[in-house]
Amino acid sequence: MDRKSISIAGSGKVEGGVYDRVKISGSGKVTGDVEAEEFKGAGAVTVEGSLRARRFDVSGAFKAEGDLDIEEGEASGSFKVEGRVTARELKVSGAAKCGPIQGGYIRVNGALKAKGDIEADTVRLSGMFKVEGLISADRVEIRLEDHSKARELGGEVIEVRRESSWGGLLGRLFGTHGKGSLEVEAVEGDELDLEWVVAEVVRGRVVRIGPGCRIGRVEYQESLEASPEAEVGEEVKG
Amino acid sequence: MAEELISKKEVLRLTGISYGQLYRWKRKGLIPEAWFIRKATPTGQETFFPKEKILERIRRIQELKGERSLDELVALLSPEARPEAIRWDDPVSLPPIGREGKSFLWKEGGYTFAELLALACGAEAVRRGGRPGEAKLLVELLRKTPEEVLKAPAGLVCILAEKEVAGEGLSLRVAFALLGREPLRLDPGCRVLLRLDLEKLLERLKLSLGEVG
To answer: B28-41 burial, b for 16+ CB within 10 Å, e for fewer?
Structure first.
């Protein structure tokens, strides 16, 4: 089957369907589900349905009313997906709001609100976030710039730090530099390195509890190192 | 009947796996979401599992992961993964079906996954002492199971039951097959002859497909 490509410059509407390439610059709407090899948007792009693409690039204000399922992609600006996000590789910078995220490599720089779990091989978040579910990955790396929240963190290696460099994007914009903290019910993993985490319980094999942490109970198998600038209620080995 | 639960910590201790592995297997769909039971305990939020199921699943994963990729394992072990476009020509070669299933075959070959499951149910019923005529009801019932049902097999059971109907000097014993999710209730006049856990049977069938194929 021959696949069409479509391009909008200015303002326009595209019908849903299967395309080779979809390119929208300016303001564009896709009515219905769309599938494309490549989806590019600059400006205000709304998909009134689900989007499936191998390559995905948007900047400006992007919104999908259904799911987003991509091989790899990048988004900058405002990124909204009302359904679930599935991506082998996805990098977002700016403000993201979406349902659950599932994938290989997920990186969000800025502010993220996710309704559901974030599950990937690697998850890197920097800035601030509210995740209603579990953040789970072989490697979870978090750089905090403002008050953040998740239900649980789980995986192999989990590292949570307060942004210590010159301050990230948000810190510079809103003067929140140095206010980063993470509130979570539980953290579980093999190697944990935590700073500025407030948690009911932390369970791990090798655990480092750094400055700013307030942890109700730490259960560890191999080693526990707790900073004098951290509060730990109970320490249990085994 | 309540299932015995086991805490996550205890699972790790008994099986020697790491947090990383457990979370990875969950992500890949090797351990069903429904088995993670979150509970608030005096020592903080903890996760529990149905003991028998989780230990058996981890044992299988550990046994097979040397020779197979995680994705292959998902297809084999995890009933909620799609039963690929299976067309099987020789159902009797699969242990869950075996010789006991032979009399239920209705075509030369090309059995779909749902049809194989139907045969496995019938064969299992025969092995447990069911009458072939009644076991056949299960086969008839299950061979038309929609795919969606097979994708979410948690708690799915099929029941073979009978009921006595008497009146006007006539007494009739009626056997029937039923497919549903626990807790299933039948009226007190029914006698359950056989109850098959479809989730377990599905898993055994998938595994045997992997081993033979």
So the answer is: ebbbbeebeeeeee
Mean pLDDT of A48-66: 96
d(CA A64, CA A49): 6
Confidence of residue B85 (pLDDT cuts 50, 70, 90): low
| Burial degree of B166 (CB within 10 A; 0-12, 13-18, 19+) | exposed
Reported ipTM: the value is: 0.87
Q: CB-based contacts of A95: which residues, under 8 Å, 6+ apart?
A: A77, A78, A79, A110, A111, A112
* Cβ–Cβ gap A190/B19 under 8 Å: yes
Could you read off the pLDDT of B87-110 as tens digits, one per residue? Answer: 778 889 888 999 999 999 988 888
A152 with B18: Cβ contact below 8 A: no
- Secondary structure of chain A as H, E, C letters: CCCEEEEEEEEEEEEEEEEEEEEEEEEEEEEEEEEEEEEEEEEEEEEECCEEEEEEEEEEEEEECCCEEEEEEEEEEEEEECCCEEEEEEEEEEEEEECCEEEEEEEEEEEEEECCCEEEEEEEEEEEEEEEEEEEEEEEEEEECCEEEEEEEEEEEEEEEECCCCCCHHHHHHCCCCCCEEEEEEEEEEEEEECCEEEEEEEEEEEEECCCCEEEEEEEEEEEEECCCCEEEEEEEC
- Name the residue of chain B whose CA is nearest to A139's CA: B20
Residue A31 pLDDT > 50, yes or no? yes
A186–chain B nearest CA distance, Å: 7
Where exactly are the structural domains of chain A?
A: 1-83, 106-238
Identify all chain B residues contacting A203, using CB atoms and an 8 Å cutoff: 9, 19
Q: Measured between beta carbons, which residues in chain B are less than 8 angstroms from residue A190?
A: 18-20
For residue B213, what pLDDT is reported? 42
Q: Would you say B52 and B3 are in contact if contact means Cβ atoms under 8 Å apart?
A: yes
Residue listed under structure tokens 């109907």: B165
> What are the structural domains of chain B?
5-77 (1.10.1660.10), 91-212 (no CATH)
In whole angstroms, give the CA distance from residue A60 to residue A65.
16
Q: Per-residue pLDDT for B80 more than 50?
A: no
CB contact under 8 A, A216 and B44: yes
